[in-house]
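Quarterly update from the structural biology core.
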Amino acid sequence: MHPVFQSSRRDFTFGPWKLSAARTHIMKSSQAERLADELHMPSLPEMMFGDNVLRIQHDNGFGIEFNATDALKCVNNCQGMIKVACAEEWQESRSETEHSKEVVKPYDWTYTTDYKGTLLGDTEKLKVVPTTEHINTEKLKAREQIMFFEEVLLFEDELHDHGVSSLSVKVADKTYMLREYTSRESKISNLKNVPPSLFTEPNEISQYLPIKETICEKLEFPEKLEPKPETSLETTCAKSK
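Predicted structure, tokenized:
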């Protein structure tokens, strides 16, 4: 028997800051259908963790959080971005189904998103400023005491057996608050020397994918406030196809 999944929530407080990470069950199909309608998308990722969230919030109310719903709002729901070799055959195989007369709205079925988090706060919010500073990933690998580490999966989809698309967010207590978004992409034909077993492992395959876009931003705090956060944020959106 497989172990029963248990929802979990972890909170970590440091000074005026509270870091919360919640991991729950996959969204029920009825809920997913309603959300798909709201987002004007034909379908959502197979594994949609609608209640999973990672939040960093100050006592004054401002902060940042990461959730699946807001991430999907950044997905192109009007145009399909990628077509695989067997796309036409796949569509023809469904031409005689009960839904054959329905027009399937094109959308980015890889669920590619440039989501960088949702800013929190009513009267005060973090200020997003472009920067040339990068998150030092080598420093993150250094063996030093970490008071808090958590990885929260927001959604994942196997793309009809054409790869995998997943979105997760990691947090660890470090000495800065930077936000870095990196998009990597490659054609399978350019990955001939990469073991196929890595194609569905985003953390492993990413090192073989050329960088398509990088956006680095510094999250500045409201004026007259001098908190001392010790947090680094890394949002990972990876796909192989």
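The first strand starts at residue 8 and ends at 14.
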